[in-house]
Design brief:
39% helix; globular
């Protein structure tokens, strides 16, 4: 994630900011420029201070402080590039429900930032009624006896369901512990489940089965049986050598989704490190030195990303331990996993002609 600047006063601004703490101007994200801008109100719209000819309106979800993205004033659109994909949203009748939606919306916008940067396909259900990308944010069911049936997070032909209750840290941590996972976040759910959608679009729909199977295995294996075997017997004993996580070893579909999620984890975090000028140069340990001197969203290979990521993640893990916190990135990138990340990198870049907007080109120089 990049750092931004208030167009009015020059103060540093961040991706989720709604207003400048120095000059008070309203801030928001403009997908057309992929940047946070400052605005001045002009009639029923807002004028972008840095681009006086550009007028926008805020996403309708800004009314509840759910979203800080904009739409072009002339477009007639009500919802932004991210929120237009939502079908079922959390209950807004309570402050708790609104706060949950704010946390979910924040994670969703981070996902769509990456989708926009990488020019990934994202048709909605108007553009593709059968397989377009759409989100249902599902509430748990309270049964007549008072027990609770948790909503399920998952993917089905472009429909991504996210359990609303996981916006609560206590609920999500309980689920993480029960599932014996090292890592579980809302953003992780969005990135993983969207990996299934991307598999449909870039592997299945483009007939890339044979290259996929050569790297991930045969997806024609019975998925339900594979999942049941995993829950009955646990992960295969040697999963660490070939998979990014135990869950990735369930089935080639899950392996791809997990690796896609980690690809986005790595790219976006490296961009953040670059924005802050982070460099790792431990004395006496030259093999651990790294600095992100390239644009991660335009990396030449997954290996380039991994070479920068491994030393950085080791340092971040050590910093977390120094604060008594668990590792930020508790995963090992084996050669087999790097090969899978390379497949995903090539898949993404073969599917588009990478030509970022002028504002991004300047930032990447």
């Amino acid at each position: 994630m990049r750092l931004y600047t208030c167009d009015h006063c020059g103060l540093t601004a961040h991706f989720d900011n709604r207003s400048c703490v120095n000059c008070g101007h309203r801030l928001g994200f403009v997908p057309e420029t992929m940047a946070i801008h400052a605005f001045e109100e002009e009639g029923d719209a807002w004028r972008v201070i840095a681009r006086p000819e550009q007028r926008v309106r805020f996403c309708a979800n800004a009314d509840l402080d759910i979203c800080n993205w904009t739409v072009p004033a002339e477009s007639g659109a009500v919802y932004c590039e991210a929120c237009r994909h939502n079908r079922l949203v959390p209950n807004i009748e309570t402050p708790e429900g609104i706060e949950r939606w704010r946390r979910i919306g924040q994670a969703q916008r981070h996902l769509f930032y990456s989708f926009l940067r990488l020019k990934l396909p994202r048709p909605d259900r108007v553009e593709d009624p059968q397989g377009g990308l759409v989100f249902d944010f599902l509430e748990d069911t309270v049964n007549p006896d008072g027990s609770v049936t948790p909503a399920m997070t998952g993917h089905d032909e472009g429909l991504i369901a996210i359990r609303v209750a996981e916006a609560d840290d206590v609920t999500r941590e309980a689920a993480r512990t029960e599932m014996n996972e090292h890592y579980r976040t809302l953003l992780g759910h969005f990135r993983h489940e969207s990996g299934h959608f991307i598999w449909n679009r870039l592997v299945r729909d483009r007939n890339r089965f044979e290259p996929f199977r050569a790297v991930f295995g045969d997806e024609r294996e019975d998925y339900a049986a594979a999942l049941q075997r995993h829950y009955d017997n646990g992960a295969r004993a040697d999963w660490q050598s070939d998979f990014i996580s135990a869950y990735a070893s369930v089935h080639p579909w899950e392996d791809f989704a997990e690796c896609f999620a980690h690809y986005l984890h790595i790219v976006d975090t490296l961009e953040t490190a670059r924005a802050y000028g982070l460099a790792i140069d431990p004395k006496g340990h030259d093999e651990m030195a790294t600095e992100v001197t390239f644009n991660p969203y335009a990396a030449r290979s997954a290996q380039q990303l991994v070479d920068a990521w491994v030393p950085l993640s080791v340092a971040l893990n050590s910093i977390h331990r120094s604060m008594g916190q668990p590792d930020l990135y508790p995963f090992v990138l084996s050669p087999a996993v790097v090969g899978k990340l390379e497949f995903i990198h090539k898949l993404i870049y073969d599917a588009k002609s990478f030509d970022p907007p002028a504002s991004e080109k300047k930032a990447s120089e």
